[in-house]
Amino acid sequence: MINKNTYIAVGCLLCALLTYIGSRGLSFEGGLLIDSSIGILVLLSVILLVTTPRKPVKTAFFDSPSELKNLINLFLILSGFVFFLPKVGFLISGYAFYFAFTHYISPERNLKKSILSSLVMVSIFFVVFKFLLGVPLPAGTWLGY
Amino acid sequence: MNFDVLWQGTAEVLSLSNFVMLFGGTCVGIIFGALPGLTATMGLALLLPFTFTMSASMGLITLAGIYIGALYGGAIPALLINTPGTPSAIATTFDGYPLTQKGEPQKGLVAAAVASFIGTALAVVVLATSAEPLAKLAIKFGQAEYFWLSVFGLTIIASLSGDSLVKALLAGMVGVIFSFVGLSPVTGEVRMTYGIIDLQSGINLAAFLVGLFCLPEVLGNITGESNKNISAQKVEPNVQVVFETVKEIFLKPMLLLRSSIIGCVIGFIPGSGGNIAGIISYNEAKRWSKTPEEYGTGIIDGVIASEAANSATAPSSAIPMLTLGIPGSPPAAMMIGAMMLHGMKPGPELFSEHATVTFAFIMALFFAALVVMVVGSFGSVIFSHLINVSMVRLAPVIILLTLVGSYAIQNSVWDMWVMLFFGLFGYIAQKLEFPAAPLILGFILAPYAEEGLAISILIGSSQGSVFLYLIQSMISKVLIALSIFSAVWPLVSSLLIKKNKGVTP
Known about the structure:
The structure holds 2 protein chains of 2 kinds. Chain A is mostly helical. Chain A has helices spanning about 5-20, 30-50, 65-90, 90-105, 110-130. In chain A, α1 (about 5-20) packs antiparallel against α2 and α3 (about 65-90) runs antiparallel to α4. Chain B has helices at about 5-15, 15-35, 40-45, 55-75, 75-80, 90-100, 105-140, 145-155, 165-180, 205-220, 240-250, 255-265, 275-290, 300-325, 330-340, 355-385, 390-410, 415-430, 435-465, 465-470, 475-505, and strands spanning about 180-185, 190. The longest helix of chain B is centred in the N-terminal third of the chain and has 34 residues, at about 105-140.
């Protein structure tokens, strides 16, 4: 029976495999704990895998059908912000991100409200982080400023 | 201890101009701590140049305020949005956020402020009275001792296991494996970077924490069909709660004392910080509690344990700093820098040639904690209103804050990707009921264990026996005994509970 524990065990086995691939050829001191950690991870994963069929766990992953869609869309918005931040700078990417995020999650989808809140909040963030806290926010390489 | 110098130091702190700077520094520190990604070290680094033009005592008093303020500030987002503002506040989220979800954020905020004051106050007493003998003990902490300290820390996973010990151990091991990414601390070999150059510096702890704790919580509230708020109940904060909570806290003297002592002990060991102290203290509070099953459900005991311990580390990390010139933590290194810029050389002469300024700094830590208690307790009436704001309005602000905070750690866009990755990881882990607390414990403690073990093997081999080197000191023996006790205790206690249940008709 496939359930949450099965996913965890398989995920941990994959993690062990990736760790093995990424740590080949190390010296004794360099790989000292890594090898034993891989061993323990595999052992525990197998224990979880073997004991799982006898202990069924609730399998529903998402609470509603729209949850996965929302998760993907919100992550795309977040990733878009991080991707464009060094290219177009904090202000432009910030306004775009805040507008898109607010507009997407807001139930009323009010365009004016979303634009206004994005302009106000991102500008506040910019002033606080750039001028008060001295964080050098990216200016943007594409626009050359 | 010379009480005259102590009074002189106190008088120095309480002079109007110095106290104003202390108050201002503490408030700035609270803001720094409360912003995820911004740490006490960053706050100190940013404001250090402003203290150059001040007198030595005023400069150090201001920096003490920033340091203590930032340690408390980290608890505010930990309690309200499940995001430790600084790594020290990790264990505060364990009970703090459930407390907020129950509609009692103000209780948590007051408990954190008062416990921070008590932890700091006790550690200041230790610093003022026994700095020298404790400093001698601190330098006896070698690699073998660090290894056993981390092993002791890792045994806590057993008590953080919840419903499944195997899953908790697996989470702990995954955390350990994440800590291996980057350069080997002993040999400098590149590990698990898969050709990505940014991974060579490892996974940043703050980005890891913010991603794992904050993003899943916020996304979990807004991705469903109906948007949820942090607390189902409308919170109506009032001053009465402050007094009730203070009364409740002082009814737990043993918890306060034990947590503060743990913080003091962990704090004066160079290299170990408030995050380890908070987790160990939380675990001990749970172990000694008559109702351990209530931990994690939102009780102030968990908040008190974490905050008293992490706050106590600040004055106690000053012990090796003031007496030996060894910076026990990054903020302590900043303090040493400030002292040297004012012509004060850390070491025994601080207590003779610059005694008044040194004791002014020590007393500033105490008074900063007092300011934290007052501002934190009464500020809770304002901070708690945050919970009543709809998640639709709050989510974009929190997420932008975590993203910019992650960037601000090292001015690196890469850390934002790390934060997003662990946000997604944390979201999936939450859905799979894969516990996050052991994962963090493994991530934090594994580097200590790895470095301690590898160097112990090298030293032990040259001395003839690795095994003997690992167990020869008294500190190692005590830590081994504590580790065995800590690992076996959950098993013994569950057997005892089962036995008692069997006897009860």
